[in-house]
Write a structure and sequence with these properties.
By secondary structure, this protein is of the alpha/beta class. It is built from 14 helices and 13 strands.
Length: 401
């Protein structure tokens, strides 16, 4: 039986409140000069106190050696098996910006990127162009037309945009054009089965036309696409866990993912301080609060060790605002590791702490990779996080007689 179905049969309503704080890309690797990770380098007295009073471990988003994308990483945190519930990145982007998807639409997440004279990618994010520039470029790309297929383009944020194909006979089983590395050309989009060959031809034609439109622009002179998908159906967290959940997330993709699993999504600011203030504002109305912090992941992907440390310290400074609300469960972790030394997501397990009056504290005295590796939870699958949180909030009944 599917894990989420098993949990849903035990879920009950209770007054308990759960806060899941996700610092995106939290896990790191030691800096070559200090031998300390970003989390070990950061000054985190408030998180350290929660770790000392709670129970800790290292969470594996997918399994040993497997590097997760943000979508699968978060699905695991919410208790959805990422291998059973596959969601294309394009759908998450579409939901995140409230794009009016229609039945049969295929969505893909796009990056504006930079290529050199040989057609090789030199910057996958086009220098992180502003959202204003992205909007203007999307307006130009929206003029590309095909007979029988509509190609709809919408800005998301910064260098990211959304491509939606609308027409009959389209198939989402396509490989990405984004090679996710530098010094190579964008890939040709290929069908993963014969049914997708016509759609692949349409996408490649669109990319060729987009390259022509962008030829005079710099640094955003090319595009790469990934995550082709149609809108799936997932059981909601309300149905599965008897929860009234809310998401506090600034970045569109995570807002989209939250909507997909049935969370209410509220407006919040960009700063850590504004996001924690939004949590306080909506705390009384909900019994599950998902708070997403993006800055840690962005700094890691940029290879900015110091900025990732600062982002962690910002979160720690805001923690008293959360702790003073006295939720029954505070769970703190990341959806994956993004070591600044790698400038990318990685397979390394993620530090995790759970704080609750009902937990059995271990000997961990600080929140860090090394300390959490000695915690009582050990190294465990991220799918266990929701059952642990629900149990400590007294939202699971006994199994069996």
């Amino acid at each position: 039986m599917d894990r989420i179905i098993q949990i849903s049969q035990l879920a009950i309503t209770s007054p308990g409140k759960i806060v899941l704080l996700v610092m995106d890309g939290l896990g790191g690797l030691p800096h070559p000069e200090t031998g300390k990770t970003e989390l070990e380098t950061a000054r985190t007295p408030n998180l350290d106190k929660l770790a000392e009073e709670g129970i800790c471990g290292l969470s594996e988003p997918l399994g040993a050696g497997l590097t997760p994308g943000s979508g699968p990483g978060h699905l695991g945190l919410f208790g959805y098996d990422p291998f059973a519930f596959t969601i294309g990145r394009g759908i998450l982007e579409a939901l995140g910006i409230d794009f009016p998807l229609e039945k049969g639409d295929i969505a893909a997440r796009g990056n504006f990127c930079t290529i050199d004279g040989k057609g090789l990618i030199t910057d996958r994010r086009a220098g992180r162009i502003s959202s204003d520039v992205c909007t203007k470029l999307c307006e130009e790309l929206s003029r590309i037309s095909f007979q029988g297929v509509k190609a709809l383009v919408a800005p998301v944020e910064g260098h990211r945009f959304l491509l939606v194909l609308r027409g009959t006979g389209l198939n989402p089983d396509l490989a990405d054009s984004d090679p996710q590395q530098l010094g190579v050309p964008p890939k040709e989009v290929v069908a993963l089965g014969r049914e997708g060959e016509a759609t692949a031809a349409v996408v490649n034609s669109w990319i060729a036309k987009a390259k022509g439109v962008l030829a005079g622009h710099h640094p955003a002179n090319m595009v790469v696409l990934r995550g082709f998908a149609r809108l799936p159906h997932l059981p909601s967290m309300g149905e599965s866990y008897k929860l009234n959940p809310v998401a506090i997330a600034a970045y569109p993709m995570y807002r989209g993912l939250a909507r997909l699993v049935g969370m209410k999504v509220v407006d919040c600011g960009r700063s850590v301080e504004e996001q924690f203030a939004t949590l306080s504002k909506h705390y009384a109305e909900h019994d599950f609060i998902f708070l997403h912090i993006k800055k840690t992941d962005t700094a890691g992907e940029d290879g900015d060790f110091k900025r990732k440390v600062q982002a962690i310290e910002e979160v720690d400074a805001a923690m008293p605002q959360l702790v003073n609300l006295k939720p029954d469960v505070i769970a703190v972790t990341g959806d994956h590791s993004t070591p600044a030394t790698m400038k990318a997501h990685s397979w390394h397990p993620v530090p995790f702490l759970l704080h609750s009056p009902l937990c059995r504290p271990d000997d961990v005295a600080e929140f860090s990779e090394r300390a959490c590796s000695k915690g009582a939870l050990g190294r465990f699958p991220a799918l266990d996080i929701m059952p642990l949180a629900l149990a400590h909030a007294q939202k699971l009944t006994k199994y069996g007689a």
